[in-house]
Amino acid sequence: MKTSPAVVIERPFQAAYREIELIPQTPDSILCRTTLSAISSGTDMKTWRGQQHPEQCWYPLVPGYENVGVVEEVGPEAKTTLKVGDRVMINECRQFGNVCAAWGGNSKYVIKNAVTAPSPFDYLVKIPDNVSDRDAVLAYLACVALKGVKRLSFRSNETILVSGAGMVGLSAIQIVKILNPSAKVISLDPLPYRCEIARHYADHVLLADGSQVEKLLELTGGKKADKVVECSGHSEVVGTLHQYLKDGGWTGDDEPGHIHLQGDYPEPITLDSWHRWFVKNATVTMTCALSPGTKEQVLQWMSEGKFNTAHLPIELWKAEKCHEAFVHKQAKGDELFKILLQWS
């Protein structure tokens, strides 16, 4: 396999469905055929708009990292138990022959080997028989949320506020509920329709309309949240998170609040008045991408019926209509979580 049809962003705001060159197959290569991929609201739309940092990618490029498909060939030196015909999460391909791999998930054929998949989480994972291709595509961002949530040290009966009710935020809410069932999980978002979706997952939902701090105080008996997971991806939100976090850390057994940054922020982050942050004694952490084992865990939760994507606003488009799909996603904005591309 030397070439493949792919979604190529030729320049900002211009996509094409065309042939690209693949790198040569090696004895350790696994060749996969994509059946379903995605346009993500964060990374892919930033790439579409030309907002990525130039050291990360250049045009023309193949965007995406959320794709599933079928194993077509297994090289004689491939270290895997996968077989031809297995359905798999494919995800990143980090090198093509004649275009930039801006994470490279939107290619019909993908060669996975030590060159194209060098990161510790780039490996293929078999999809359980009772998990659909749709759910397996959506599992990727849940893996990103899982890596972030695992940075929190859970305590019983704590309050965890999740800022942002998009794909990552709603995934984080479900994962917190799985890993810490005694926690009270509160969703916060400025968009009413997203708040309605969040009601399927969170214990309480706050609309960010100016009254949210007062309502948070009511829900927590004046304490506020023990932990905040920021998933909105909006840079200006980060600098205001202290207003949702409890006071603490003044004595040895008084655990301070914890803010975890899970978004992909395109603009510089500015904290508002420092004294409001300084007195929180807070721990601030951040994570990017996913980690080994998260794909298997999320797929298992999906297989067991513990992780639910049924309420997420998703549209299906043919991969050949990729330009129109990007234009549509840009127009719909935050009200459409994701476009899934079907590969014939």
For the record, give the distance between the C-alpha atoms at the N and C termini, rounded to a whole number. 17 Å
Mean pLDDT: 96
Instruction: Please bin the fraction of helical residues.
Output: 10-25%
| CATH architecture identity of the largest domain | Alpha-Beta Complex
Overall domain count: 2
The succession of helices and strands, N to C, reads EEEHEEEEEEHEHEHEHEHEHEHEHE
The CATH C-level name of the largest domain is Alpha Beta
Number of helices: 9
Write down the overall geometry.
Answer: globular
Q: Which structural class do the helices and strands define?
A: alpha/beta
Low-confidence stretches: none
Strand-residue fraction?
25-35%
Number of strands: 17
Radius of gyration: 21 Å
Name the CATH superfamily classification of the largest domain: Medium-chain alcohol dehydrogenases, catalytic domain
Largest sheet: 7 strands, mixed
Task: Specify the oligomeric state.
Answer: single chain
- In CATH terms, what is the fold-level topology of the largest domain? Quinone Oxidoreductase, Chain A, domain 1
Summary tags:
344 residues, alpha/beta, Quinone Oxidoreductase, Chain A, domain 1, Rossmann fold, 2 domains, 7-stranded mixed β-sheet, 6-stranded parallel β-sheet, 9 helices, 26% strand
Account of the 3D structure:
This protein is of the alpha/beta class. It folds into two domains: 3-142 and 291-342, Quinone Oxidoreductase, Chain A, domain 1; 152-286, Rossmann fold. 24% of the residues lie in helices and 26% in strands. The strands form four sheets. Strands 3, 5, 6, 8, 9, 16 and 17 form a seven-stranded mixed β-sheet that branches. A six-stranded parallel β-sheet has the order 12-11-10-13-14-15, with helices on both faces. The protein has a two-stranded antiparallel sheet with strand order 1-2. Helix 2 packs across helix 3 (167-179) and helix 2 crosses helix 8. The mean pLDDT is 96.
